[in-house]
Design brief:
This protein is mostly beta strands. The protein contains no helices and eleven strands. A hairpin with a 6-residue loop joins strand 4 and strand 5.
Length: 128
């Protein structure tokens, strides 16, 4: 079982950048497909980005393509989400999620129900 702890959230002006971190303990991140989701007040949780277990497949929500970058540092056992050109609509609680499913070795999923482990979330606020 893996434990996930997010950090790096905060308040930033529109157009600014933040880098979120998801530190894993208990197991190595290379054994998991790792994803980021977000949830704004009054809205459903939505997919942001994912990196497959192999690291060879990466996917993004259309709303963040070209602005956000997911990466994984196996030595630090951490997954990152670099967020640039932030917009007010990016404001949300960002969650890190993981699944060890072999089906996600090369493939990825944007469905929250396919992820078994979740962090507690980190708040991102974007001022206009």
């Amino acid at each position: 079982q893996v434990q996930l702890v997010e950090s790096g959230g905060g308040l930033v002006q529109a157009g600014g950048s933040l880098r979120l971190s998801c530190a894993a303990s208990g197991r190595t991140v290379s054994n998991y497909a790792m994803a980021w989701f977000r949830q704004a007040p009054g809205k459903e949780r939505e997919f942001v980005s994912v990196i497959s277990r192999s690291g060879g497949t990466i996917d993004y929500a259309d709303s963040v393509k070209g602005r956000f970058t997911i990466s994984r540092d196996n030595a630090k056992n951490t997954v990152f989400l670099q967020m640039n050109s932030l917009k007010p609509e990016d404001a949300a609680v960002y969650y890190c999620a993981a699944t060890p499913s072999p089906a996600h070795y090369h493939a990825t999923s944007s469905a929250a129900e396919e992820y078994d482990y979740w962090g507690q979330g980190t708040q991102v606020t974007v001022s206009s």
